[in-house]
Amino acid sequence: MAEHNNRLMAARDLQMWFPVRRWGFIPAGAVRAVDGVSFELRRGEAVAVVGESGCGKSTLARTLLAIHTPTGGRITFEGRDMEQFTSREMRWYRRRVGYVQQDPYGALPPFMNVHRILREPLIVNGVRDRQEQEERIRDGLREVRLVPVEDFLDKFPHMLSGGQQQRLVIARAIILNPGLLIADEPVSMLDASVRVEILKLLRRIQDAHNLGVCYITHDLSTVRYFSHRIMVMYAGKLVEKAPVGGLLDDPCHPYTRALLRAIPDPEPENARTYRPVPGGEPPSLMNPPSGCRFHPRCEYAIAGLCEVEEPPHFVPRADHEVACWLFREE
Amino acid sequence: MAENGRLRLKDLYLHYRSQKGPVQAVDGVSLHLERGRAVAVLGESGCGKSSLARAILRLLPRNVEYFGGEVWLDGRNVMELSEEKFRREVRWVRIALVAQAAMNALNPVVRVGKQVAEALRVHRQMTGKQVRRRVRDVFRQLEVPEDFIDSYPFELSGGMRQRAVIAMALAAGPRIVILDEPTSALDLLTQANIMNALKRIKEEQGTSFIFITHDVGTSSELADEVAVMYAGQVVEVGRADRFFPDPLHPYSRKLMASVPRLHGGGGLEFIPGQPPSLVDPPEGCRFMPRCQFSFEKCREAPPLFHTDDGRGVRCWLYEQGCEAGLAAQREPTAAVEPMDDTPPPEDA
């Protein structure tokens, strides 16, 4: 059972469809935000979920957080099936999983000061001892480097800078000692110089607590600094899964390749060349294309195959999975 | 008067009134823009870059404490024009603006084509057929399918709405377009497509751009020149092909070192501390409190020093020239290294 000890979370064929009703009651299909996602997350491993807006990556995060109840598939956490959770186990689960939101200001209640914001999860989760509460609040603030602690305890969110707000959100996420951190675009609202500071902080925390991390982002260029593995998501499906180095240096899926081509590293030549990226827009999740969902935008689409049959996950290299017919074994 | 689209800003100031005192959002900015060129104004949030756009177009809020300087357009100081004349001859006709998040400000009950046409009716006194042809033209330049002209904003994706907003700015045929964060809310592929379209317009029509952004990578997509703003001032300005490989000002260097790169990504640095308040900026060099290279002289405000290759840098280290300035910044700094991608070991 060695494998089990090291596996933190696993999702199998996870499906999150949102029913759509016309006039409020006539069934009119569903938005397939997450449609058959499988992955595993080991203890202490950081996995990035990369995709464009509307690809379902935030829904995936919210499903993993048990905010949504999946419409299909299963999630197991530390070997237990989430569907079978009793309400007591659900409370345990919520303690074990921390959440860092994208917009720190929106995620912090404006009428609570820092002390109260950090005390809240402790109260809710049964840390009754005042002394212990105080200690954990102070430790949390020190851990995210909001020091000297005394200067921050009485402040309200609007008195903090964007970077400090995000630190506070992180402190709140880890104050219950979770085993898994779900970070939904934790740095995309921050300025470049602050972004690096927060990434550094997240990494130190991940290291110190041996946290499993699910890092949701649209920004492939930061992934190298905060993940071991990348999963690329397109229109509700994972199209490629690989270790960071392998994926960034030698991407397989045409969509991943297009994403990587679209990122400008700051070079003066950029202004003189056109970027070879596919046109068009991501498909509607209510009515996704048949077969491979990327085929209408794909320059390598194989007629008679890609638009008909959905590609399974092929393994062109060890530890590298790609859902694309180009990699089928002859 | 020839419309060649040459713009020169000289000592432009825009201070806002606030309870705590004047906010020095634009504090003595000088810039040059030649026809068919693009200057990227780079800076972090709150450095005054959007205020600069408003100052150029005189789109001012009510709480202006002080507004002054010179804006030379095609050899004429347009700051001297009356508001009425400025509106009729300059704003939108010669210099147009794609404001930040403008795509969310489209009128939801008017078809986008009609909203674009409005700019033409008001500013170019065109009618019926001409207007329709022109609208179709600009939509084509931006690669918007023609049938989208009759759509309502809510029917369009973010990328298409942003294109409609850019079309609105381009419709009246201005020589200069100010783009304020035109692609920040968009997806990577959409962003790359819009940048491609802007490059084509710049090349084919000789439109000049002032490209305001906080995103260093995207700025390189269009820029011939780069101006870095910090706390209301331009701290460095120069040609893009010199700036990107080798920025001069300590702030620019840190900013560039904080940008994660996809290819050959090395360590990342960050700038400790926060940008100063624009109400009460530090005396002397405004970057001094965060600068590891600051010395006695920095208590005095540095002028813009010019290097041999025509760049300008507002830093005392460059008083003795470019080499001396760069040599003074050799000291290594702590960096965040990329992650080792070997996953944690399986339990034995």
Give a quick precis of the structure.
Chain A is an alpha/beta fold and 330 residues long. Chain A has one domain (2-327): P-loop containing nucleotide triphosphate hydrolases (Rossmann fold, 3-Layer(aba) Sandwich).
Describe what this molecule looks like in 3D:
- The complex is a heterodimer of chains A (330) and B (348).
- Chain A is α/β, with parallel strands linked by helices and 330 residues long.
- Chain A has one domain (2-327): P-loop containing nucleotide triphosphate hydrolases (Rossmann fold).
- In chain A, 32% of the residues lie in helices and 25% in strands.
- Chain A has an 8-stranded mixed beta sheet with strand order 6-7-8-3-9-10-12-11. In chain A, strands 2-1-4-5 form a 4-stranded antiparallel beta sheet.
- In chain A, helix 8 (162-174) packs parallel to helix 9.
- In chain A, 44% of the residues are buried.
- Helices cover 28% and strands 20% of the residues of chain B.
- The N and C termini of chain B lie far apart (81 Å).
- In chain B, strand 4 and strand 5 (76-77) form a beta hairpin.
- With 348 residues, chain B is of the alpha/beta class.
- In chain B, the strands form 2 sheets. An 8-stranded mixed beta sheet of chain B has the order 6-7-8-3-9-10-12-11, with helices on both faces.
- Chain B has a domain at 243-327.
- Chain B is globular, with a radius of gyration of 22 Å.
- In chain B, helix 3 crosses helix 4 (128-141), helix 3 (112-124) runs parallel beside helix 5 (158-171) and helix 4 (128-141) packs across helix 5.
- At the A-B interface, helix 1, helix 9, helix 10, helix 11 and helix 12 of A face helix 5, helix 6, helix 7, helix 8 and helix 9 of B.
Low-confidence parts of chain B, pLDDT < 50 over ≥5 residues? none
> Structural class of the secondary elements of chain B?
alpha/beta
Outline of chain A, from the CA principal axes? Answer: globular
**Count of β-strands of chain A:** 12
Helix content range of the residues of chain A, please?
Answer: 25-40%
Instruction: Quickly count the helices of chain A.
Output: 12
Largest sheet of chain B: 8 strands, mixed
